[in-house]
User: Fold these one by one.
Assistant:
Number 1:
Amino acid sequence: MKKNSKEELNLEALSAVWQQESARVEEIVTEHTVTHAQLNRHARRLSPHRRQLMITQGYALLGAAALVWLIAIYDKYVVDELDLVAHIVVAIPLLFVLVDSQLAAASLFRLRIPKRPIGAASRHISCLTAAVAIMAVFIVVVIPAYEGRTMSACGMHQRAMAINTVNQMLENLSNTAL
Amino acid sequence: MANKKRQTEFLLMLDKYQGTIMKLCLVYTDRHPENVKDLYQEIVCNLWESYPRIRRKNNIPTWVYRVALYTAYTHQRSRKRSVPFIDLDDGFFETVASDSGNEMVERLYSLIDRLEPEDRTLLFLYIDNVSQVRIAEILDTTESAINHRIKRLKQKLKKMNENEEEQ
């Protein structure tokens, strides 16, 4: 392994270097014994690293969804200022629900099948899938239903305004006539 | 009761091969304690999951290497898509993954990092003193094929050496 030696990268030299590292690792590892409790934890729990990763990805996903939603509102659905405020008021608790749903999915998978060790990666994918599915339900079912209601409320509001205007005009006309 | 007995058996086996698993984790990660811990956890999970299915108990070393290598390949692929975090909470993994203080070992790791996955596996098994018969068994091939691949690896290392000298 000496830099200027022609023999530096031969397998035997590498093997000799590895034996030193191997001895170091074996020495540390012999002091560490895995217990029953740790085995169960290894098998069933997400590591803090993965959990953080999952939450961050969840937030990123939600951020993207919120952005798309806001663009859609500006583009198509904003009828007056009141509607935009209503959308934002609904969006905030919905974001909380979605974050919770991802965490709930993680605990659900652990609760349903406690004896079966699931790989952290597969659990991670399941949680993301669950979050996407819940979001899809909201986008396809809940939001259109909400849209319909606000639009019809808005229509009623406009009709009332129109009636008021007509009444005002009639009143003005009668005043002029008098 | 049977489950408890199986767990004890598994833990005894794990104690014996913990060093091998840990070394493999060091070779297949960037030696960040959290990444080493993640891969270690996944390997233990997969070993535990497939433990009831081993029929020949005398073939345990091959099975450990196979499961660990397969997990490491999968982990490496998923690692490329994920974001690194800094969250140090386990002294054991920190100690194992810490800089060995040996310049030659660090150079060996940097060389391992530059190798293709197949060559990395072969080099790891070879320098870890696994017999060529066992390597053939682990990689599901013949001994002569392994000999041939070792010869090619030697040539590759020679070429890398020459390139390094030129630079």
Note: Chain A touches chain B at residues 1, 3-4, 6, 8-11, 14-15, 17-22, 24-26, 28-30, 32-36, 39, 42-43, 47-50, 52-53, 56, 117-121 (CB under 8 Å).
Number 2:
Amino acid sequence: MQAQLTAKDIACRRGERLLFKGLSLDCAPGDALQITGANGVGKSSLLRILAGLLRPFAGEVSSTGAIGLVDERLALDANQPLGKALAFWERLDGCSDPGRALDVLQLEPLLDVPVRYLSTGQKKRAALARLLNRNCPIWLLDEPLNGLDTQAQKSVEALVALHCGGGGIAVVASHQPFAVPGGKALAIEDYAA
Amino acid sequence: MSAALALLRRDLSLLMPGGSGGGVLPLLFFLAVAMLYPFAVGPDAQLLARTGGGVIWVAALLAAILPLEKLVTGDLEAGVFDQLSLRDVSEELAMAVRLFAHWLAFAPLLLVATLPAAALLGLDENTTRTVLLGLLAGTPGLAAVGLAVAALTASMRGGAALAGLMVIPLAVPILIFGAGALSRPDTSGILFTAAISLGLCALAPFAAAAAIRAAQEN
């Protein structure tokens, strides 16, 4: 089954404010797309709409293939050691090889550390490990570079390139420059209402 | 099925006493009420034996409110429900599992603690048995009301205090029939309590799931 992510003419309203309207995008396997824009223009809302977690104010979204989302919310239990917190999602996703993600993201030394003691960058890497373990074709990344050091930033960019090279789709919302394969970018400001 | 098992395992590790989030606090609270009551009304054994069963019921109801704060709020804030919906795990399933885990985390211990509480209040064997059976029938209902209210108030500031206030009126039917069984010679009160509990347990996962979906939209 080919992965596909399409949004047609969507608009997003938060409270009384219309953030953007008339936004369309179409991602085929191997596509990577960077969403750019200043704080508060609706990057995160757009990702949540694409993920199906938020109803668009207008327009429609359709997707084929499982969607993985990494945003600022970790979904890992703060009081549990990282290994145990990740293990829950591994069981749920039926992941057979969690070691690879831990290795790529250099999380092995942190497995015994309770999640609440992790630094911002380490938490981000943990969330990315959860995404990798799931092996889903569509990635939605919300500010994936936040808090990461230069080396980790490079490896996240490499992971995205690898994912798209293997026929996956990646939509990356980032206010920082993010080297996506193909270099496609969408500026939300163009659709500001 | 495997999703339900994974969820149950996680919920139990979070909610069980000794788990990372749980605690024996509700239990101590429950015992403290049973201990304070004789101090407050005096050492009249007859009065204690007559009213003790009701006191245990009130203490159990209030103890059931204590764990509500951690029941849903943390997962909602941490985005756990977002990740579950992305995996097509319905909120209903997550809430049904949580209801079971929540009941397991507080009710069996509460039933055990009822024995020392009954001894402190000088309840006779018959009354103690009626209280135990009543609590066994009523605690699933208390857990169900608690879960639904915890989900409803999860996204509010100061939701925990509000949850406590909202549980009390909803739990009144359970209290009326559960504690009412003490003054009846037959078991009809306990059966009524069980019926109310079953109804609440059937409704609560759906109510809680709807509340969570509404909170996610914000």
Note: Chain B has one domain: 2-216.
